[in-house]
Amino acid sequence: MQSLQKITSKFIPLRIENVDTDQIIPARFLKATTKDGFGKNLFRDWRYENDDETKPKADFVLNQKQYSGEILVAAKNFGCGSSREHAAWSIQDYGFKVVVSSFFADIFKNNALNNGVLPVTVSDAFLQQIFAQGADDTLSVDLEAQTITIDATGAQEKFDINSYKKTCMLNGYDDIDYLLNMKPEIEAYEKTI
Amino acid sequence: MGKTLFEKIWDKHVVKQIEDGPSVVYIDKHFIHEVTSPQAFSGIEKRGAQIFRPQQIVATADHNVPTMNQELPIKDALSKFQVDTLIENCKKHGVELYGLGHKYQGIVHVIGPELGITQPGMTIVCGDSHTSTHGAFGSISFGIGTSEVEMVFASQCIMQSKPKVMRINIDGELKNGVVSKDIILYIIAQISASGATGYFVEYAGSAIRALSMEARMTICNMSIEMGARGGMIAPDQTTFDYIKGRLFAPQGADWDKKLAAWAALYTDADAKFDVEINIKAEDIDPMITYGTNPGMGLSVRGTLPTVESFADATEKQNYEKALAYMGLTAGQSLLGMPVQNVFIGSCTNSRIEDFRLVASIIKGKQKDPNIKTLIVPGSQEVAKQIKAEGLDKIFADAGVEIRQAGCSACLGMNEDKILAGEYCISTSNRNFEGRQGAGARTLLASPLTAAAALLTGKITDIRDILN
Q: Is-contact B23 B123, C-beta < 8 A?
């Protein structure tokens, strides 16, 4: 897993609530047997008219040239619905390292963390402050300090992450290595069942 | 202080509590399917690791399979490759596979219970958010991502933070024409599509106790649609009677021992929930959704909310976006609106009881000539039972074809899709944009409401047919 410490970047504002994983990556793209190449189909049906890559929808934020960056900012309840990890793979493959929302669905949050994409939960008020910024303004996310800052205004908020996951993210460790090292304890547990 | 049902099972399965981190939770049963497992198999192989407990895994092919001509090779090359990859992976790693053509094949959340694999007190995971279905048996069951599938492959454990607990009590008697699907659609409409995020939900109360196992599964199945990590119902005599005698159910002395343990699986009287919600069964009407998340539901006799009823600008904008997608108008009624498709199936409503309900409505009648149907049993076993009970004849006489087992039009992944712009009354679980195919407009409802539309071609209050 890729590590992440600090990032300062412009952001893409997605002012939509309850973004479900079927929108992030429609089911017809789940036929793959690898994790690669999902980014081009991220938000596929919001991005293109009639599934046609030559017809980008002008009103969708990923198609608006003024917006760019490695941070996606979305309205509340981001990533609800299906457990498909393909949603996290799509977001990562597109180039996002951080997703900011006032509320994340549980499974998506775990999937993002397991792929080195940092979900940052902010207050509703802070989210609105971010949405009020211009396309050239940047956000800074500092995982060690657990802060997110609107650079133009200096407004800052702390975000939560448990210290185990934080250490994993900072160093690029993954849970499976941890679990593989726990096998003796797991075998001992099994004897008690 | 006493413990909740959730805590009793959770505590027993915690192998280790990481300080200021998640718990390492032991998993009793792991279901896998073709869509969310290939990257986990290749992940474990890349590490040079072995599957730790292959005998605790059961595989099936359900999401990406056709529901016609299953005996022939799958036409779509990518789908065929994905299904073949599952076959190879299971063979290589010694995992039991009930694949296409196997007599136990079917939707993963239908076959687990019907084969007696799903049992009270277990921890169960699957790379599918509707794994919450198995909670109907008093198990902790939840959906996971593919990295987590790999974790369970590697260690039979998963890292999870302990969720908060919520209890939803539904007391009283359901009105005529109201079934368990209506209960869960009502709950989600009340608390919203994110109302239970961060919680594990226990459903309780006299209306829940009165339900069959099939009906309880429908409720637990849709727990994820309000954001819950999972849903569960304490096991009782109904549960034990359902399990007894099934293929993988405990036998003989083992049955007696298990039964004694299962009888202790209930929430203690003095246990505390983080949130408790009370609902009167009498308040629930046949329900239908009108929007693009399962929280956007109302009584089939209701009217859509006005735009003004939403407080903030983003909510207003989201509601208008949903209305535009659905081709509906704020304030309108849905009753009498023509629909083009009826889908009866999915892990929510494709069990034998669902087919009995539908058959009871359409018996001796003809389907509306304009309605296109996808009527899809959840498993080979359900299909067999439909024939054994002669229900297939009732469907055939009504002009309705029954398909082969699979997830079908629930998720717009296989061949079964709804055309852009068309409405579909669907017994499935999600009405997201494009869920049943790009541009498809999904109206979630119970099998009874779907059966009513099958006959009339319109959104119909089933009580108008029953009376």
A: no
E strands, B179-316, in order: 199-204, 230-232, 275-280, 287-289, 297-299
> In the prediction, which pLDDT does B269 show?
97
Concatenate the DSSP letters of all residues of B1-63 into one string.
----HHHHHHHHHEEEE-TTS-EEEE-SEEEEETTTSHHHHHHHHHTT---S-GGGEEEE--T
* Phi, psi for A99 (deg, rounded to 5): -120, 130
Quote the tokens at residue B187. Answer: 């709950």
Q: Which residues of B147-173 are buried (b: 16+ CB within 10 A; e: fewer)?
A: bbbbbbbbbbbbbbbbbebbbbbbeee
- Nearest CB to B20: which of A31, A106, A164? A164
DSSP code string of B291-321: SSSTT-EEETT-BPPPGGG--SHHHHHHHHH
Place of tokens 């940092």: A118
A175 lies within 8 A of chain B by CB:
yes
How far, in Å, CA of A117 to CA of A119, rounded? Answer: 6
Q: Inspect the interface and report whether the beta carbons of B155 and A180 lie closer than 8 Å.
A: yes
Q: Is the pLDDT of residue A120 over 90?
A: yes
Residues A135-158: tens digit of each pLDDT: 999 999 999 999 999 999 999 999
pLDDT tens for residues B360-388? Answer: 999 999 999 999 999 999 999 999 999 99
Across the interface, do A23 and B434 touch by the CB < 8 Å criterion?
A: yes
Chain-chain contact of B193 with A75 (C-beta, under 8 angstroms): no
CA B239/CA B261 separation, integer angstroms: 13
* Structure confidence at residue A44 (pLDDT): 97
Q: What is the pLDDT of residues B279-296, one digit of tens each?
A: 999 999 999 999 999 999
Is the pLDDT assigned to residue B305 strictly greater than 90? yes
B151 and chain A: CB distance < 8 Å anywhere? Answer: yes
Facing residue for B129 by CB, picked from A15, A23, A81: A81
Q: How would residue A1 be classed by pLDDT, with cut points 50, 70 and 90? A: confident
The B residues from 347 to 406 touching A (CB cutoff 8 Å) are none
d(Cα B204, Cα B220) in Å, to the nearest integer? 11
Q: Residue A186 and residue B161: Cβ atoms within 8 Å?
A: no
Cα–Cα distance for residue pair B200/B226, rounded to 1 Å: 11
The pLDDT score that the predictor gives to residue A60 is: 97
Q: Would you state the pLDDT for residue B311?
A: 85
A125 vs B contacts (CB less than 8 Å): none
Cβ of B293 within 8 Å of Cβ of A20? The answer is: yes
Q: What is the pTM assigned to this prediction?
A: 0.97
| Dist. CA A57–CA B28, nearest whole Å | 47
Counting beta carbons within 10 angstroms of the beta carbon of residue B239, is it exposed (0 to 12), middle (13 to 18) or buried (19 or more)? buried
Please check whether residue A81 is in contact with residue A56, taking contact to mean a CB–CB distance below 8 angstroms. no
Distance CA B91, CA B282 (A): 51
Nearest CA in chain A to B409: A27
For the segment B213-230, what is each residue's pLDDT rounded down to a tens digit?
A: 999 999 999 999 999 999
